[in-house]
Amino acid sequence: MSTVTRQTFNEVMVPNYQPAAMVPVRGEGARFWDQQGREYIDLAGGIAVNSLGHANPKLVAALTEQATKLWHVSNVMTNEPALRLAKKLTQATFADRVFFCNSGAEANEAAFKLARLWGNKQAAGKNEIISFTNAFHGRTLFTVTVGGTPKYSQGFEPLPGNITHLPFNDLAALEAAMSSNTCAVVMEPVQGEGGVTPATAEFAKGVRALCDKHNALLIFDEVQTGNGRCGDLYAYMGMGVTPDVMTTAKGLGGGFPIGAMLTTAAYAETLAFGTHGSTYGGNPLACAVAEAVFDEITGSEVMANVLARGAQLRAGLDAIGKRYGIVDASRGKGLLVGAPMSAAWKGRAKDVVNAGLAQGVWCLVAGPDVLRFAPPLNITEAEVAAGLQHLDAACAELCAQPQAVNA
């Protein structure tokens, strides 16, 4: 086996990423180790993906068992793991039907195609999709256009048309913009990439009412907020609002790629035979692992741990903020937590992430001005405390640097 290092990335990979200098090689629970054997506390979770940590024994067992049976058949045939998972998802949610794919972007692509197809069947011109500024819905051309961050779509013109972006949590702006030509409104219960900004209860309920008024679909992008991340199986369950279409991915597979779009039987009829597809969607390996994730999240104390550890993490971040003046009050739901950079440290969230890695803790950014945390849902009290201790040391080191004085 040939030796590879971080330098190998620069030699063989397309440069659209800038990965960290260290290379992880092994993980266990909320910890992982790099090529030099150094240990890190994982407060990032593979960007909210490793919902039950690294190398979870139950997920390893599910994958290993399925690997000896059936790997892939395509959607010319169905398979047992996909059917079992779909049944559990529909029994636990508002939905009646499931479309499986491989990622959150693909799940959103399916949702937006359904909305357009449904709207065009309702009336000529009913194909406007409304989204919100700072939203993130994926990196395909359609999903990146619906997303509300222009930098991700610049240079890829011409873009799909008739997509409107409005301020998040601004119900009056939405009310003024919606019309009979609106086929769907898409929103994240908590904007993840856009700064870990939760939707207010008033806004979420108002969006639902406006969609009902204008006969438009309400699409909830729960790619990041779902699968226990916010303290409910899906975040909509704690909001008193039920969408017409919901997308999920990330934590659903616990690290194995899988995505899904869920909807009612009536709206599912829009995607009739041949209208959409996915070669790997509903893959037996992915569905077997996702079923094990689902069973663990819904059948244990995971959800209670999410709320307890989320409160612990936010209290620790707020204490660090007061101690060093680097971050302001934290926000978020459950174990999707954001810490906005203070005025003096605007634009330097990545500096904190890098300093954290040097101290042995991994966290994320949500843009240049917000630190983001999305650790495994089963992270322990001791592991959160250790991660906060490492982050505290990182902030202390940053504050001790001369350039921090006038940051």
Can you walk me through this structure?
The chain is α/β, with parallel strands linked by helices and 407 residues long. The protein has two domains: 154 residues, Alpha-Beta Complex (Aspartate Aminotransferase, domain 1), CATH 3.90.1150; 241 residues, Type I PLP-dependent aspartate aminotransferase-like (Major domain) (Aspartate Aminotransferase, domain 2). It contains 13 helices and 17 strands. The strands form four sheets. The chain has a seven-stranded mixed sheet, sandwiched between helices. Helix 6 links the parallel strand 5 and strand 6. Helix 3 packs antiparallel against helix 10 and helix 12 crosses helix 13. The model has no long low-confidence stretch (mean pLDDT 96).
Shape: globular
What kind of oligomer do you see?
single chain
**Uncertain residue segments:** none
Q: State the distance separating the first and last CA atoms.
A: 46 Å
β-sheet strand percentage: 15-25%
Structural class: alpha/beta
User: SSE order in H/E notation?
Assistant: HEEEHHHEHEHEHEEEHEEEHHHEEHEEEH
Main location: cytoplasm
Protein name: Acetylornithine aminotransferase
Pfam families: Aminotran_3
Family: Belongs to the class-III pyridoxal-phosphate-dependent aminotransferase family. ArgD subfamily.
Keywords:
407 residues; alpha/beta; Aspartate Aminotransferase, domain 1; Aspartate Aminotransferase, domain 2; 2 domains; 7-stranded mixed β-sheet; 4-stranded mixed β-sheet; 17 strands; 38% helix; EC 2.6.1.11; Acetylornithine aminotransferase; cytoplasm; pyridoxal phosphate; Aminotrans_3_PPA_site
